[in-house]
Amino acid sequence: MENENPLHIASAIVLSQVDKVESVKSSLASISGIEVHTEGNDGRIIITVESPKYREVADVLLSIRDIEGVLSSELVYQYSDGDKVSDGDKAH
């Protein structure tokens, strides 16, 4: 049975310039679907991204690199609770 309310979640570590952590956190928090969880004193920021559409999660993760002060972002974990991918996405 296909899940009518699919959920796609990804977690990532975002590495920010240390002097720009607060502005990067603010920018991340303003993006729909992102939750900022914690930060290290070395510029690392832990986030999750949540959406009913896999493609939106992927797009958000890609857009993070364009935030001023972000040095890199790495996907740590990805989860989908549906058997089928919604909204025309290709299976992953």
Keywords:
single chain, alpha+beta, Alpha-Beta Plaits, 4 strands, 21% helix
What do you see in this structure?
With 92 residues, the chain is an alpha+beta fold. It has one domain: Lrp/AsnC effector binding domain/regulation of amino acid metabolism (RAM) domain (Alpha-Beta Plaits), CATH 3.30.70. It has two helices and four strands, in the order βαββαβ. The chain has helices at residues 21-29, 54-63; strands at 8-16, 34-39, 44-51, 70-80. Strands 2-3-1-4 form a four-stranded antiparallel β-sheet. The radius of gyration is 14 Å and the shape is elongated.
Brief rundown of the structure:
This protein is α+β, with helices and mostly antiparallel strands and 92 residues long. The protein has helices at 21-29, 54-63; strands at residues 8-16, 34-39, 44-51, 70-80. The protein has a 4-stranded antiparallel beta sheet.
